[in-house]
């Protein structure tokens, strides 16, 4: 090898002969490539180790972040959308050394990212489609998702965990068919397989899942996927990005995109939805990560050339009581009556089931329909024992999420659309990331930032470092952390487990915010609701996590709205009171927050769908039962007006020395007032009693109060028991 010395300005430069480099054989080239990769792995490991140091300081306030966004300084990247994808892009960009900003119209994870099936998975049905159709693209997507599943379980172990899922088999020929498919899933997972799948006998299946239908059951397959708290995971990604220096703000709407004289996007004009203030954010690159709303932002960037690329699909899930499933095993129905797949999973000590899959219009407030809820219930009935009465009234919550599927003009039904993502660069320079699925958010973010760096010529400190980058709460967490909360703070075990699994190593910060209970046990930790482990201190902490509305708290910082709409309604006054103290809300603002949150629960969490089910249900009362209901009605309607008003309720409770809050009086009326005319008619009263008997409802507060006052048997028992 020859050396050539160059001298320029007194500085010696030694260069390697180009001829010698070109003469390297393929063996040396491969060795060189391995050395380069090893070098970058070393650099990556050093940077990752630095980034993975736990930040001891408090998060900046929302006010601090908004001040940063209003400075007028140019950001390298501005991301629109605070769901899983947008959050992932923000974290990736910031940790590469790019000056990053993010704005979200509503709350972080307020859309699709909080309304998923709560699984971190590669997609068993996508692998089936890949094998059956020899679809290389779908195969790669599954393999990519399985890597991301492993990574997510590593970087946020407090928010995620492996979950065994049972596939019951009722026909002998299905045993080898499904076994080969599940084993292929294990094989594609490679060394990152969570646990190997296995077959169990009928007896073992019933021991593991006692409520399973046993007629014709041949056995079951058990395979493993990941499960997580989706909204909290989304928030953890955002908080991690903020810890590393990103300026991420929720409740900030993009009014329009800013452009230079050549039509290139240079930022956005935004509005704070809390204060109404407006300003401009300058950025070298703007990324559109708005999920189902992708096309609306694309039209802002390229109104003349943008064509729709998103085909939104509505997926409905329901929440049932925890006794519907074992606490540690899920269920997969691989072949529903219309060819879809339904999961039946334990989650947050409840049971969730879903999902449907139907084309949908884009809306900020997707609502579950009674038809979708009944479809899920009917499918569940087909798999559960006849001894388990699957009742409409057991649906504690229901929600609809809009999946941002990528449109394929050659396919009409959304069931066959994979969650593949695309990255588009518009003529204006706007970069759009669309499609994909929750599990692959990190990979999507990596490819998006790669594209942005390439197209806009941005300078980074390093390449992507997000594989292995710990998320908020993961740094010092371990599975036994909750014991320290019990022993050191005097908390109840379920509360300590909840705090540990929600906040990770930040749970101790929440614990220190708790007030003394004044009881022998627990010493600290005032519950918001007796049936759930949520504490009033969490509401105060939620404000530090950028919660701006009551809905932000009950739906995403806590998950109560997704778990039980009745409980969510009951805790709202306390949530609003605490938030009012933290944020300085006036009485008028507190009333407005209450009203907005109640509307959210009724419209988007399935409460209205439940009332519709009751009103549409046929009367199934005997003549004697109708007479008893009529007598109870007349106890309230003493003037024989034919309807009951809130004044009638108020008067009745006063006569019996019962103190009922005015707000509760209106809620009692509203729960029975199906046609929403401010009165309860006799027909609505009959529907109430019929719903209690038929299982469309499991309980009703008004009936419960009346039973307590008059000392009569519960209407449930009086109507035959349900």
From TrEMBL:
Q: Which keywords has UniProt assigned to this entry? A: Calcium, FAD, Flavoprotein, Metal-binding, Mitochondrion, Oxidoreductase, Repeat, Transit peptide
The source's domain of life comes to Eukaryota
Q: Which GO terms describe its molecular function?
A: calcium ion binding; glycerol-3-phosphate dehydrogenase (quinone) activity
Share an example GO biological-process annotation for this protein.
glycerol-3-phosphate metabolic process
What pathway does the annotation place this protein in?
Polyol metabolism; glycerol degradation
Which reactions is this enzyme annotated as catalysing?
Answer: a quinone + sn-glycerol 3-phosphate = dihydroxyacetone phosphate + a quinol
* CDD domains xref list: EFh
As recorded in UniProt, its EC number(s) are 1.1.5.3
Domain EF-hand spans what residues? 624-659, 660-695
* Cofactor field: FAD
A GO-annotated cellular component: mitochondrion
What subcellular locations does the record give? Mitochondrion
Q: Which family does it belong to?
A: Belongs to the FAD-dependent glycerol-3-phosphate dehydrogenase family.
Q: What is this protein called?
A: Glycerol-3-phosphate dehydrogenase
Q: Which organism is it from?
A: Caenorhabditis brenneri (Nematode worm)
